[in-house]
Design goal:
alpha/beta; 8-stranded mixed β-sheet; 8 strands; globular
């Protein structure tokens, strides 16, 4: 459930009105989610940054409870409709800023209820950091996978109570969120996933006990992996290792696929950054939509 003020805002929106516009009557914190960009990503590549209209949508910040904590999120859905397929949209390391919110609106335009939880909310606000190493050390590295999984469960519960059909749920995520897609696809709570350049291997730790390679054979939902051939942080040999692990696993694992764009590096879908590769981003988006449709999410 939303807190009372935000629920009134979200439920009473007219098509084309966002809770950012309606939330001039709410606090700045609530209105800020999904607005602007993280400081570490500045300056923005304004000439390529996509801005999707909220016309015909209900879109804006929401909250839902998990273990006594109110998780902030950005949600977007076609106005006046229920029984909608659901997509969990998982942030990059920079949190739920304008690019992530815009991605939610893009899914909403396709008929989905899309929700992007701020998965670092307990650890800190990533948007104020100007240095990526400091952001990683002080916030991102302190986020437990178990917390993330529980918050995604909570997002599905919120969607179910607010017009979503969670029997048709999928998950997609970018960079840090791409790794989370693989992990959540092993829980049996979504029908399909699309992972954009998420890390596949890593050292086990108390907070991150498993990585995608460790859960690959046990996937409960097929994942489409979209990766860049020039990604300096994700060597292609780790993609090959992941393919080998998937080939030994469940039907969902064996149904998973990779597409590697040879001319793209990391973050090629991030249209607000110099890393953006339009051809790969647009092809990946169409493949993502087709993947969800083929696997019962649409």
């Amino acid at each position: 459930m939303l807190d009372d003020d935000l629920k009134r805002d979200f439920d009473s929106l007219r098509p084309g009105e966002s809770t950012e516009s309606g939330a001039t009557r709410r606090t700045a914190l609530k209105a800020a989610l999904g607005v602007g960009y993280a400081a570490a990503t500045l300056p923005i590549a304004a000439q390529t940054a996509i801005q999707t209209s909220d016309e015909g949508l209900k879109a804006g910040p929401v909250k839902y409870p998990v273990a006594g904590f109110e998780v902030p999120a950005y949600a977007a859905a076609p106005a006046g409709r229920t029984g909608l397929p659901v997509v969990l949209v998982i942030q990059e390391i920079f949190g739920v800023h304008a690019y992530v919110a815009d991605t939610c609106r893009r899914f909403a335009k396709q008929g989905y209820l899309a929700i992007a939880p701020e998965l670092y909310a307990r650890q800190g606000d990533p948007k104020g950091y100007t240095e990526v190493p400091k952001l990683m050390a002080e916030v991102v590295s302190k986020v437990p996978d178990a917390q993330v999984m529980a918050d995604l469960d909570g997002a599905l519960a919120w969607a179910r109570a607010n017009g979503g059909n969670t029997d048709k749920a999928g998950i997609t995520g970018f960079c840090w969120g791409g790794r989370i897609v693989w992990l959540y696809a092993a829980t049996g709570k979504v029908k399909a996933g699309v992972a954009w350049y998420g890390r596949l291997v890593g050292q086990a730790s108390e907070l991150t006990p498993k990585h995608p390679i460790d859960v690959a054979a046990g996937l409960q939902a097929p994942v489409l992996g979209l990766y860049g051939g020039k990604d300096q942080g994700i060597p292609l040999d780790t993609v090959d290792k992941m393919k080998a692990a998937l080939a030994t696993g469940t039907p969902a694992a064996r149904a998973s696929q990779f597409v590697v764009y040879p001319d793209a590096g990391h973050a090629f879908h991030a249209d607000y950054r110099p890393s953006y590769v339009q051809a790969a981003a647009e092809d990946g988006w169409q493949r993502a939509l087709a993947w969800f449709k083929a696997h019962g999410v649409a």
